[in-house]
């Protein structure tokens, strides 16, 4: 029984005014308290009736509870529902709903939804199955979306899934539900099957050379309880880079392993995560991942035998380049310079040969040796051997000529130099003050302008140089980049050679600084000196080989296309105003792709819908109207329908407990049991309504009170 008054403001206002006026006039009449009590009682009852009060009696009656049935349409649900040939899991789930639809609607007021990264309404029919998504599922976000979009309160939720794409965020689902009951219906046969596989490998978009980066490996395991399994990360040659052993859980769980790796050179580094039984080191299952390695900064050690114009110009260029970290050392005090005082009294320190060649050399990417004589400092072959090991492991060595370099510096007397230099050296002094012309060969280092034709035009404009070391010849496995030409001979001027994992370049002339001086007189040559040395250093350290645009495809439960974009200095682009034109080609048809910036230098797009079989992606990237680069990649996506994976019943049961629900398997899930365990819903109905303001006895009571007042007034002589 509930009491109500009219919610119309005018009745409340009239009552208040009426009562106020009555009190104003009545308090001036001078009547006795008894008469006032009778009069006020009558007036109060009248005001009460003006408010139109009524009594309502209600009772609760059971109604159909609201139900949201969420069907997982993520990529895992493409797999077969049972071992061997069979319907996909999502199709089996749809058939189950259609088979029980009448019974469901008899017991519930249902709404059907499909979900992957987000939820959407489903119109189910046996002839038109819902479209499966290529996205991983996000159960938490999907349930929140369904609850927020429904005006009517949802009492019960069914989640029909195999549970293979549950994320860590989904485990906090109970915090979002506020009393809603969630039942989980597992799709797929729950036959016992040993499972040991790599689910996912997470790597960063970029890795910087020499700087550690993390690799996260997710491993699914079942049926290996109390036995050791080994998770490892291997390189493309199957060499183990890092590994760890774990005790496999008894139920179906996902293990996360984190490894720290480093790369020693630029380019695409290919890895594979592998899981194996500890008793058998071969990979039971693996998944590949690529990392794009670039240099955060190129670390350069510049060692010069004596000050010169070349040293000043090249050092200035290196010092002002924001992508280069420079340590330079120029010899200002030679051993033959007798000073007659102790070293502690001098401002110039002795040449720190051991620190440079043994302690600190591994910290650098490029070692520049300019007009330096090993003989002058009594340095042994072990110093040259240290340089050789530095290059073998991936470092780069640039040797620039001069009066104390190459043959004049007795480099041929050191076995390490003879082995790694790209030229054959004379056994005696080979430095000449001759004037010579520079003749470029078509090479990435000499491509100063956009095309080779334009670059050649610039090379033809540069002036002759003076002073060079006369090499005997270039080695057969070396590349000649520049040649010199005098009146009577021609020979190699700049020669490049790969040695081990690194590169060695010999530059015969220490007079390229003249190019920088010429830039002030010929405007077309502006930036020529900087461009040549920038390309030479980028090429020696491997950056020049990096394509500005590089496509890759991450295949798995979803197909993710990734594009690496580098700027002119081979650094990740940071702006998001690039124009990207991309499409996927499959079976002769073209499907546009939209790449979005994920992090500096990394753009990604989901390939949706997923196509299985051979296909290709092509992308062209522009900055304004200028083409920054383009790339094309071909790949083949294998259908996940070939592999049967049972549902993650353990994970779904644990999640059901957190959400006050139960776990069922699709094969034995009965609507009766689901209905009996559902949260009931009720509706309130009005049994009767008693309107006090519309009853005769209330007006009769007012009449009696006024009459009693009149009688008392009459008997008391007031009338």
Structure description:
This protein is of the alpha+beta class and 719 residues long. 24% of the residues lie in helices and 34% in strands. The strands form eight sheets. A nine-stranded mixed beta sheet has the order 17-16-18-19-26-25-24-21-22, with helices on both faces. Strands 5-4-3-6-7-35 form a six-stranded mixed beta sheet, sandwiched between helices. A hairpin with a 3-residue loop joins strand 4 (109-115) and strand 5. Helix 8 (353-359) packs parallel to helix 9. The radius of gyration is 43 Å and the shape is elongated. The two termini are 46 Å apart.
Fill in the keyword field for this structure.
719 residues, alpha+beta, 16 helices, 24% helix
Write the SSE topology.
Blueprint: E1 2-4, H1 9-26, H2 33-50, E2 54-63, E3 66-72, H3 89-99, H4 101-107, E4 109-115, E5 119-121, H5 139-149, E6 156-161, H6 174-177, E7 181-186, E8 195-202, E9 206-208, E10 213-222, E11 228-235, E12 240-247, E13 253-261, E14 267-277, E15 285-294, E16 298-304, H7 309-320, E17 324-330, H8 353-359, E18 366-370, H9 381-392, E19 396-400, H10 415-420, E20 423-424, E21 431-440, H11 452-459, E22 465-469, E23 473-474, E24 479-485, E25 490-499, E26 502-507, H12 513-519, H13 528-540, E27 549-554, E28 560-565, E29 579-586, E30 589-593, E31 596-599, E32 602-606, E33 613-623, E34 626-637, H14 649-658, E35 663-665, H15 671-676, E36 681-691, H16 696-715
Parallel strand pairs: 3-4, 3-6, 6-7, 7-35, 9-15, 16-17, 16-18, 18-19, 19-26
Antiparallel strand pairs: 1-2, 2-36, 4-5, 8-10, 10-13, 11-12, 11-14, 14-15, 20-23, 21-22, 21-24, 24-25, 25-26, 27-28, 28-32, 29-30, 29-33, 31-32, 33-34
Helix pairs in contact: 1-2, 2-16, 8-9
């Amino acid at each position: 029984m509930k009491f109500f008054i009219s919610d119309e403001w005018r009745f409340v206002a009239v009552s208040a005014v009426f009562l106020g006026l009555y009190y104003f006039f009545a308090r001036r009449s001078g009547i006795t308290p008894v008469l006032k009590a009778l009069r006020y009682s009558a007036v109060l009852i009248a005001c009460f009736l003006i408010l139109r009060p009524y009594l309502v009696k209600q009772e609760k009656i059971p109604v159909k509870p609201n139900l949201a049935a969420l069907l997982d349409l993520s990529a895992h649900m493409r797999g077969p529902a049972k071992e061997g040939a069979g319907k996909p899991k999502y199709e089996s789930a749809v058939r189950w709903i259609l088979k029980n639809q009448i019974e469901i609607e008899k017991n519930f007021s249902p709404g059907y939804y499909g979900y992957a990264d987000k939820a959407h309404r489903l119109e189910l029919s046996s002839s038109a199955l819902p479209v499966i998504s290529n996205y991983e599922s996000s159960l938490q976000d999907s349930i929140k979306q369904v609850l927020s979009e429904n005006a009517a309160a949802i009492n019960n939720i069914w989640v029909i899934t195999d549970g293979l794409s549950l994320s860590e965020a989904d485990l906090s689902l109970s915090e979002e539900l506020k009393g809603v009951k969630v039942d989980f219906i597992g799709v797929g046969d729950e036959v016992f099957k040993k499972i040991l596989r790599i689910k996912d490998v997470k790597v960063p978009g970029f890795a910087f050379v020499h700087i550690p980066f993390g690799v996260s490996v997710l491993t699914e395991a079942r049926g290996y309880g109390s036995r050791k399994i080994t998770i490892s990360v291997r390189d493309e040659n199957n060499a183990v880079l890092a590994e760890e052993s774990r005790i496999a859980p008894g139920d179906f769980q996902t293990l996360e392993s984190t490894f720290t790796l480093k790369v020693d050179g630029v380019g695409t580094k290919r890895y594979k995560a592998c899981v194996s039984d500890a008793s058998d080191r071969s990979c039971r299952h693996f998944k590949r991942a690529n990392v794009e390695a670039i240099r955060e900064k190129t670390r350069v050690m510049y060692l010069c035998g004596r000050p010169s114009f070349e040293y000043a110009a090249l050092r200035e260029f290196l010092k002002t380049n924001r992508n280069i970290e420079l340590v330079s050392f120029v010899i200002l005090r030679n051993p033959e310079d007798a000073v007659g005082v102790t070293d502690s009294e001098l401002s110039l320190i002795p040449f720190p040969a051991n620190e440079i060649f043994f302690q600190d050399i591994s910290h650098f990417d490029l070692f520049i040796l300019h007009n330096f004589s090993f003989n002058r400092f009594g340095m042994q072959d072990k110093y040259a051997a240290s340089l050789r090991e530095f290059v073998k492991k991936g470092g780069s060595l640039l040797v620039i000529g001069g009066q104390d370099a190459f043959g004049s510096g007795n480099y041929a007397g050191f076995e390490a130099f003879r082995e790694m230099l790209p030229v054959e050296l004379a056994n005696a002094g080979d430095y000449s003050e001759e004037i010579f012309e520079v003749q470029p060969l078509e090479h990435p280092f000499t491509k100063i302008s956009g095309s080779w034709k334009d670059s050649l035009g610039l090379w033809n404009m540069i002036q002759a140089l003076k002073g060079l070391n006369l090499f005997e010849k270039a080695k057969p496995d070396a590349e000649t980049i520049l040649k010199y030409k005098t009146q009577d001979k021609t020979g190699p001027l700049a020669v490049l050679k790969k040695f081990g994992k690194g590169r060695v370049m010999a530059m015969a002339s220490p007079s390229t600084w003249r190019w920088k001086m010429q830039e002030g007189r010929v405007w077309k040559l502006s930036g020529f000196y900087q461009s040549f040395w920038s390309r030479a250093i980028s090429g020696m350290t491997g950056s020049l080989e990096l394509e500005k645009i590089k496509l890759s495809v991450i295949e798995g439960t979803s197909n993710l296309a990734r594009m690496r974009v580098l700027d002119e200095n081979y650094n990740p682009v940071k702006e998001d105003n690039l124009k990207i034109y991309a499409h996927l080609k499959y079976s002769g048809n073209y499907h546009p792709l939209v790449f979005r910036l994920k992090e500096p230098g990394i753009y990604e797009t989901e390939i949706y819908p997923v196509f299985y079989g051979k296909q290709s992606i092509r992308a062209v990237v522009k900055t304004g109207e200028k083409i920054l680069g383009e790339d094309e990649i071909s790949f083949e996506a294998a259908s996940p329908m070939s592999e049967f994976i049972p549902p993650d019943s353990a994970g779904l049961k644990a999640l059901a407990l957190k959400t006050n629900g139960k776990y069922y398997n699709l094969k034995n899930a009965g609507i009766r049991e689901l209905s009996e365990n559902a949260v009931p819903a009720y509706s309130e109905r009005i049994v009767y309504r008693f309107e006090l303001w519309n009853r005769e006895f209330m007006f009769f009571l007012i009449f009696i009170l006024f009459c009693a007042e009149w009688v008392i007034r009459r008997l008391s002589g007031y009338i």
